[in-house]
Amino acid sequence: MAISCDTLIHDVHLASCRPGLDGPGVIRDAVVALADGRIVHAGPASTADAFAAAERVDGAGGWLTPGLIDCHTHLVWAGNRSEEFERRLGGESYASISRGGGGILSTVRATREASEETLFDAAAARLARLREEGVTSVEIKSGYGLSTATEMKMLRVARRLGEAFPVTVRTTLLGAHALPEDYAGRADDYVDLVCSEMIPAACAEGLADAVDVYCEDIAFNLAQCERIFIAAQAHGLAIKAHAEQLSDMHGALLAARYGARSVDHLEYLSAEDVPDLAKSGCTAVLLPGAWYTLRETRLPPVTALRAAEVPMAVATDLNPGTSPIASILSAMNMACVLFGLTPAEALLGVTRHAAFALGLTSKGQIAADFDADLCLWSVTDPAELSYGMNLVRPTRIWQAGRDVAGG
Ligand code: DI6
Ligand code: FE
User: Fold this and answer.
1) Is the pLDDT confidence value at 407 over 70?
2) Ligand 1 test: best mutation among 94, 107, 177, 287, most atoms within 8 Å of CB?
3) Residue partners of 82: CB distance under 8 A and separation at least 6
4) Domains and CATH numbers, the chain
């Protein structure tokens, strides 16, 4: 008696991204069966006859990957920073522009003034770019409000994007992104606001899945970040941290000690901090777009992270200042070319490991009982996804078992 299913995808190879298999979990000459939004079977082509499918899809010898996951974006913002881009090309540093009231604070001014609708429309256009490349899950941070009202406005927009489009959205409160002008010289008072007002407000409306901080000498120090981690934990929210981007403050280690799901950037992470990071089970999120845009020179310790088997994720860090790059495939290419990841590691970085960074336990792999988030690629090798820039697009995209390639 054949097993009924909604969709059977045949004549494909799988980059399953499952643990314990070669590279990105290669399974050649396979079939995948989908039912009720889940993967019910992924196995050899010979098992196809066991299924009676409402729809059969001929993969034409192409490759199936899990739906791609962009686990670190700031894609809700108003205004743009092209003027700052020109100043940096002229030799000004990111840090000096920030200290002079530009950078994040210039986006904060524009975002506070923008309506929720204006923010939604601008963010929806950026999200569409990511979805065209096969992104089926995305993390979206606040952090350009730096006031409770505007931080909540940003998180509402992020939640609405997940309701309006076929994409899984995880939201992150990043109130501790920069010190707002109205709190100049009063960083501890502003951290009080983040802990006692922003986090409770986000929880009261169910707007945040995690809390993030910018642990950097131009942002918040270890003691301030620790207070925010304690407040996040008290409210049952996951923890993330922008750490060791521009200096080594050992912020990653502090976040890992508080059970952080991910620590992000890590250019200045010292090799001696890696063993404790590995023990914590935290995911290292690499953001080559910011490294490229800022023309950084200090590389994250990829060799040490690899040797310690710290899961490495790769994300766009899509934001108006340091990574105006709405392309997960370009981030994969830069992770290989600039940071020395292999194409297999880059693909795991936007699937299984990105799922770890967001606590998405049913995503990021092609295996029975995982969500039916999949991309079909007309390529001869999954390495083609990171091989170039703007060379490939998925020919089919399924999100929760629905074909969403068209929109
Ligand atoms: N690190 C970054 O690279 C971004 N935020 C952060 O904590 C910068 C965001 C911006 O410049 O708008
Ligand atoms: Fe970021």
Assistant:
1) no
2) 177
3) none
4) 3-66+365-403 (2.30.40.10), 68-358 (3.20.20.140)
